[in-house]
Every structure is written in C-alpha cells, then in structure tokens.
Amino acid sequence: MESNKEGKRAPFTFIWAIVNCTDLSIFNRLQSPVFAVDLMENTKWHLIIWKDNDLIVCCLHREKEDDGPSSIQLEFELSLLASDGSPLIGKKKEKKFAKGGYFIFSWFAKLDDVFLGRKAQFLPKDTLTVRCQMWRTGTEISNADLYFARTLMGMERWFFMWDVKEFSELQLGDFRTYILRPNFKGASPLTLVLSLEEGDEGNDICIAAERGFGIKSYYGISGEISLVDDQERVVHFKSVKTFSNSCNEIVFEFKQFCSRDKLMSKKDTILPNDVLSLRCEFEIDVGPVSSQVESYTHLSPSDIETNMAEMDQACFQNSDKPSTSCCPLKTALKSLYEDETLSDIILQAAGRTIQIIDLLKGLLNSPVWGYIISRIPTALSVLPPGGVVSGGSKQQCVYSMWQFPYEAP
Question: What range(s) does the MATH domain occupy (predicted)?
C-alpha cells in the first residue's frame, strides 16, 4: 500500500469494508465508524459515502469534538480497493481541517462503473472496500497506524408467489395483503396491498407496499412484480428501485398495475381457478446492522520495513472473513454437518454426495423447496428417509442448493 507522496508510506491507513453493499446501500449517506489518529495529535475522523444521481460521492469528515488542535493541515487520499488490496480509484487532496471540517470528492466514482460495469473488481463477495490514507503536512512521522473497520448492511432477498384467490369477487374498495417480515432486528415489516380502483377505462389493479413500525429509519428496495399465466409465463410486470425513509408510509406504488377487465377477458389462462398469480422478487436493504472498528495495528520504525507489507495484506484480508455476529446459524449448521453421526439422508448430485442432517430433512416437504423443484423437474427424485436422492440434467444446481446451508459465508 504505497502512497504517491514522495514514495513514502502513509503513517496512517484506515480500511473500511462495507459488506452486502449494493447501490441501494448508498441511497442514504452511509457513515463509517469513527477512527482516532493518535499520530496526528489525537484527531478523530469518519468517512461518508453516498449516491448523487449517477455518481458516488465520498467525504472525509473531522469530528467536532476531539483532543486535537483547532486546525490541522493534512494530505489525504481516498481509494476504492480491489480484492488484492490494490487501489482501483484514488483521489488526493491537501487541506486544513478545523474541528467539524470536511472535504467532499463529489466526482469520486461512476455509479454504473462500480455496481455494473466493473462490479467483479469493485465488489468481490458484495463488499465495497474504501481506504483512507493520511500524511501530516510538513511533518515526518516514523511510526505507522493501521485500522480495519467493517459495516454490515442488512440485505435480504425475497422470492415468492403471491396467489390472490377468488379474484373475481374483488370489488372497489376491497384489498388483499401479503406481509413481509425482514429478519434483521428493528427492521419494519413491509405489507403488499392489492386493491381495485376505478380507472379511465374500467377498473384497475393497484399494488402498493406500505411500511410498518420499526427502529430502522429507511428502506432501500428494488425488485419486480410479475403477472404469470397458467403455464407460469410472464404476461405483464412492473419494476421498482427506490429509497424510503421513516416519513414515507408508502414505500412504492403501482397505481395502474393492470386492467381488471383485460384479466377477466383472458381468465381461462390468466386466472385459473379464479386465482391471480403474482411472482414477486425483491432486494431489501434496511441499512447498517453493525458497524465497528475490528482491528488496530501500531508499528514502530523498526517494525515498518520488515512487517508493514504483511500487516497491510493481513488487515485487508479481514474483509473476506465473516464477522461472527453476521450469521451464527451458518456456523452452527456447519458444525452439525461435520458431525457425520447426525446424517440420515444422502444426496447424490453432479457425481458428488452430501449428507443431510435430520434437522433439515423437513425441507424436502417444504412449499419453498417444492416450488423450486417444480421448476427443475429433471433435477432429482426423492427416496424414503435413509435412501439416496439421485439427479438428472441439473444435478449441479441441486448440489449447490443443498450445500449452501452448511457453508459459512
């Protein structure tokens, strides 16, 4: 992690990994944990990153309250890092910071470049990594400090079928609901509301998403609602990508999703058994669920030349390691998987086998598993408990789905 300042290493480096990061995560301003720079007169700082139209904006902000001087002159560099720790984008600036002062790189990166065009480089394992390096102007500092912080975004992905039964009985003023309950503590439930409203050419189907009460102040949501026929073909859909804060009771709304009269005219294929089938896919970001400095390293002059490169790499690689608080369920399932005495079902797929513990065999009869398998009918057949499940043309897909619960993230 060499700097460009006369070829000298930065005396201070702060690495911030944002896990489960999507463009939804930065609809609102996302702030890093506060970090203290003892080598620069005990000043305290934080980073802020957000979206502004098609750009990513990044800011270095000094805390209003710290033990440092009233102002301090610094040169600093903010970068986005690749998976090997090398900078993909970097912006430098020299500035005098008063307490509470800040500097904004308003053209830090292009949004589509980071989240679409070069996503594999910028977002390995859905993690965006920001680095801040600092030099004290006019002062040589022989020691070096290295911080690593992680912010975990509360990201959930939903895929489900919403079957609206007795659709023909729906009248003006009636409504049907479907409630989504995010698993993250403090996240507001989301209620999908389907209603019938009078339109210019008859009655229209309207769909809205309403937020309930929760501690989390905002929602970032993207997704799609599709109308499917009796052959599960999409005949109509609408997409959404939006941001909603606690002031918005309605997260999104499709006022004219489709015409009721048109649906009734094709009820044999679109409304089999008087059921309206909606396929719903959503990605919901409820904001940070944890954010903290996880490691700190101080190196003296004698350590720097021999150890600094290794410490840089070790610190950066922490972003690949899951925080133990992220998913304790997967850790527990992995330990159960490793205890072969608990396995009572063996699956065979893609030329490999995987043992299934008694705790999870109920999945074979679950509606979700049944829905998935109905769409890949050649993937496997199910034998009685203790038997073998063997696959067909899509064995690799099945193997991956069953292996997933046991693997730590």
Answer: 23-130
